[in-house]
Amino acid sequence: MSNATDRFAHLSPLQRALLKLEELQGKLTAANRARNEPIAVVGIGCRFPGGADSPESYWDLLKEGRDAIREVPEDRWDVEAFYDPELASPFKMNTRWGGFLEQVDRFDPDFFGLSKREAAGMDPQQRLLLEVSWEALEHAGIAPDKIAGSRTGVFIGLMTFDFFKLLNDPPARGSTGVANSIAANRLSYFFDLRGPSMVLDTACSSSLVTIDLACQSLRSGSSQIALAGGVNVILSPDATISSSQAGMMSPDGRCKSFDERANGYVRGEGCGIVVLKRLSDAVADGDRIWALIRGSAVNQDGRTNGLTAPNGLSQQAVLRAALDNAGVEAARIGYVEAHGTGTPLGDPIEVEAIKQVYGQNRPLDWPCLLGSAKTNIGHLESAAGIAALIKVVLCLHHRQIPPVVHFQNLNPNIVLEGTAFRIATALQPWPGGTDGPFAGVSSFGFGGTNAHVVLEAAPAPSIAVPEVTRPLHLLTLSARSAKALTVLASRLADYLEREPDLDLADVAATLNTGRTHFAHRLALIAASLPEARFLLATFAEGKQGAGLASARTGDSPPKFAFLFAGQGSQYGGMTRELYQTQPTFRRALDHCAQLTDGVLERPLLEVIFSDSGALDRTLYTQPALFALEYALVQLWRSWGVEPDAVLGHGLGEYVAACIAGVFSVEDGMKLVLGRAKLMEALPPGEEIAASVDLARLAESIPHSAPRLALLSNVSGDFFAPGKGPDSHYWCTHLRQPVRFDQQIQALAERQFSLFLEIGPSHTLSERGRRCLPEGSATWLSSLKKDTNDWQELLSALQALYLQGVAIDWQGFERDYPHQRLALPTYPFERRRCWLEPHEIKSYRGG
Q1: How confident is the model at residue 611 (pLDDT cuts 50, 70, 90)?
Q2: Looking at domain 559-799, which of 3.10.310.40, 2.40.128.490, 1.20.1250.20, 3.40.366.10 is its CATH number?
Q3: Which residues of 151-180 are buried (b: 16+ CB within 10 A; e: fewer)?
Q4: Burial class (CB in 10 A: 0-12, 13-18, 19+), 595
Q5: How are beta strands 438-444 and 645-648 bridged, if at all?
Q6: Which residues pair with 272 in a beta bridge?
Q7: 601: which residues sit within 8 A by CB, 6+ positions away?
Q8: Angle (deg, nearest 10), helices 727-735 and 665-681
Q9: pLDDT (mean) for 575-598
Q10: pTM for the whole thing?
Q11: Averaged over 700-727, what is the pLDDT?
């Protein structure tokens, strides 16, 4: 039967209705599953006060309970001119502290393709987002250039425009440097992203609301990947003055969440970005998952007793909605990262809402801890939610909860006695009695927009046991400048010294597949982590080392040819190690060997790997070389290495023709087996008789025009476009000497300067080297007798990479399962990019 109607024609109407109902139920189940699918956090980037410029340093700050608050830096405003603890003037502030970043005037414009002048006219918030988003992608092990053109969404929380207020003159370039909307759009432009791109301002809840929007976008399919987070930079005293006059600021510059001394918050600045994927996609892509977002919700306070007054019932509602969306019972939540601004009335309202929701059906011996990152870094306003979320992701990852800084005695308006809730006062393990673990994050905007997110610890990674492993590994690093490359190598060497238990294969795979490859390149071959660390340190010190090479690639890679070796290059046991440790090569060689079954007396693989003299018999030599060289090409192609032209010497031209698409591997092997049998049977000098028999065999095989530039042994030159070898050609080929030197000259005349020998030795590359002036070309071999197979292969790949040949690193690592690691990210070369004094207002002197 040809269609579904025919297949189900024998069913009764009731049976067909039941089938249709089952189909609809299946679609509904799939839709519900997609709507509620957990969202994986696969990458993190951050720049927070106190030198917390990475997830690792942020976690160190949190777990050590450090306070990152300091006096207003001199380059922001003259604090003495604006500070008055008595607020005697409406133009004064009652605080002189804040959570400030270092050197927000510095940026790496060259890295992002900007002139220094254009970068100087950009809001530092845009510049922070560019750097931190790049770092988040690298932290995720996602090469930023590989997501170009993808449906990657960008969701950014941003509420201030201090830089715009600094300008004396109208903004340049159509306001692209200062328009808040451009903060997200510039990311989409720079990375060439095609998903939704938006900036959101719900005040202090902005960046947590972006998480909710990003999760919705991922679940609906409008985004494949999402970058979500927020940024806040304080350049003007205006907002601090306004908040001081409203009685919101802590006069002593300390956020004392939940404490009886709570007297307001302290402003902070920073930037945080998370990379999000649907869980199913993250698992399929082999991503490292830091935590799962199970559900989220956003609501509004509506009419309260004041526009900025919190609404406890609305806070309860948003917590319940998030739990409902997550499908998680309230009692399973072991930690809540509260909004916790440290205001004497706001904290009690929030804690009461948490108790009412998360205390439901919770036994007293199932504790739930409360905390707030604002006690460490201040209130980051539009970046506060993402700072809180990243904290909780790290808590779940480490299964620890850091202390609440400045907490001494509980706010008397907060009642925790007789409940399962308590304030986290010291670094401690995740509280017992919960299976998950699970956590909640709250963020409330002062205009009434509330957000809550429910997270779960990442599932245990499924670690695949590799079928085989490589004995050697190739590690690649690159940068936009030689200086940055040296710094990156030094950082990685230090990191590997601190993390001696890492798997070198994981390190190599993360570097090779998870980074954009720039012109300044370093590649090293190592067998162990200590060896790799030593070579990196050696490079960073400006020294040379065996297995270590670096170069700056040109604007385009050189023209590149494969050279296929002929009879005489074989030796017993060739490629035995490669066959045992490289699945792609093994599959291709096995296929070729199977094509000889029933034709040869002995199994081809047995002949190739043995040390007997059988391999030197033409009957075995030629199919063995054809099989081996064909398999090598499949390996190189799986690594993305494709030549511009192919040249074969003698028997090697059959492989070259096969690779160029003249005939299939099956037909090629059939032709080679016939040729070998004829040549073995005939005494020397009777090639003419053999060529007649070969012609009959060749005529039975379909030939196509080459799809790659192919050179002829007979003419010593390229085949004309649309022309290639045919049955007559192979007869002539058998009787004519090989014009190898002429072929090399023909390639050189067409500006070919990179040659890779495909075969078991370096016979052709050594001969070719003598054909051209010294230093005019690079000669590489895939294998070499008496040399470790992987050593020679990786040395060739190393050279190709440094020459700028495009490598498919995903293909290179495909046969070897690995875990992605969070390795040191790109070392931006920042310099001062700021407007001239006459172009901006001064906040010095009042």
Answers
A1: confident
A2: 3.40.366.10
A3: bbbbbbbbbbbbbbebbeeebbeeebbbbb
A4: buried
A5: unpaired
A6: 46, 230
A7: none
A8: 40
A9: 96
A10: 0.93
A11: 95
